[in-house]
Protein: Serine/threonine-protein kinase PknB
Amino acid sequence: MLNTLINKRYLIKEKISSGGFCDIYKASDIYEEYFQTKREVVLKIPNDKLLNKEDINEFLFMEYKILRQLSHDNIIKVFDFGIDTNLNVPYIVLEYLHGILLKDINKNNLTKKNIKKISENLKKTLKYIHKKKIVHADISTSNIMLLKNNIKIFDFGVSLDKKDTLKLDYKANYYINNKYSSENILSGKEPTFDCDKYSLKLVIKELNRYCTRG
Structure:
């Protein structure tokens, strides 16, 4: 995929990570470069296993639709959705985040004040998401990024929009994060707001466990 031009617009520069469903790439928007307003973006593209599924376009579009409803400083921004018909590849274009995953930070450097601020921001953000009738369903330290003066929640790939009739088959259990998932999710039931609250509680508990400074 490196140096591939997606839909004659997004040039893939670097692979950032691989998840259960998708690969994440850093890319440049050649339209932005042409108008000298250079902007780094991220492309989320289904991995080879998922690309063979008939409903993959619909699957990725669900995440795009959810993110399009969310406008919050602590939630990753979505810019575009498309399908490269030549490569037969659907994709989502997201903002590029300059930070470090919560799971990768040196927890020994965290103070109680840091943790309190992070926790309060996460709780407020989750409350906003739930107010939109959306369940994230995969809150974990892998899906939260710590920026210089902010935090960002991302990866809404298995999220549930309670207003939408189109939903994932949660009984498949193929996306479960055993460390942070509630019993409801582990048993293959449809995720609820309480599932998110449970996961966030575990994230905050983990941060507090490592805190040794005031």
Summary: The domain at 4-95 is CATH 3.30.200.20 (Phosphorylase Kinase; domain 1).
